[in-house]
Sequence to fold (322 residues):
Amino acid sequence: MTAIQITRAADVLPEEEVAALQPTIDAIDRLKRERNAIVAAHNYMTPDIYHLAADITGDSLALAYLALETEAEVIVLAGVHFMAETAKLIAPEKTVLIPDLEAGCSLADGITGADIRRLREQYPGVPVVSYVNTSADVKAESDITCTSSNAVAVVESLGVNRVIFTPDQFLGSWVASQTDVDVILWEGSCMVHDKFTGQEIRDYKAQSGSLPVIAHPESPPDVLAEADYVGSTHGMISWVTRNQPEKVMMITECSMADNVAEATPNTTYVRPCNLCPHMKRITLDKIRRSLETMTYQVEIPEQVAERARLAVTRMLEVGRQD
Fold:
């Protein structure tokens, strides 16, 4: 554990907890050196993973870029399964490990490649944009993928009047509000973000006084209507860092505020709190065991990977927009 890691962790974790975790962190660091491995952690990971074990952190798009750029031979994806698949798609020569095979996603579980084929039959000639929160099978049937940070740009990059957008109906609805392109929606949603309500946000505002609200676009429309800023996890971090508000209400997964607090020590986070049970399946002990046993390795059939990789590559060419 480096001095920088300890300093960052001290802002969000008690000194006693850091000391108790030290043997596990030391084992992870040793295994990373032996395996030429890195730990890539999503912004929703718990602070112990985010601050003490991770070599790279970010949202889905950032992790995709970093997986492409790293010289490490092994990537341990501290996130959920579709993220590990995405890393494997764009860096097929690397070994990608997911510490828990049950770390899934309600969005990815809510649509299949067969569903995309049926949509194409229903809307012939209309291109399919699929959120990166999908399986490789779904990506393989799509024209292009997107993340919440570049969804609008991806839709407009196609130069068409109409698109099919899957699987998140709320992100798709928000995209539709930001563009003149007609967006056909699939009725999927994130089990974390769809729990938030506009009334809940209004009640918090009434209790806390006037304060800015920033929200992830996977949230329902009545929640986004209460927001001063709507954007990806990366976009929300950038907004808080840039504006340095005294208080801010952050509408997304609970661990997010813990992980950005060290970079914004003068900001108090007011947060209606919903946890992602899938993200929380990833623990320090599971990361250590993953490196010890080199499990669980992500494999994608090449006939699927080749087409899915094309959809992801097209997304990366559009890049980040927030």
Remarks:
- The domain at 193-270 is CATH 3.40.50.10800 (Rossmann fold).
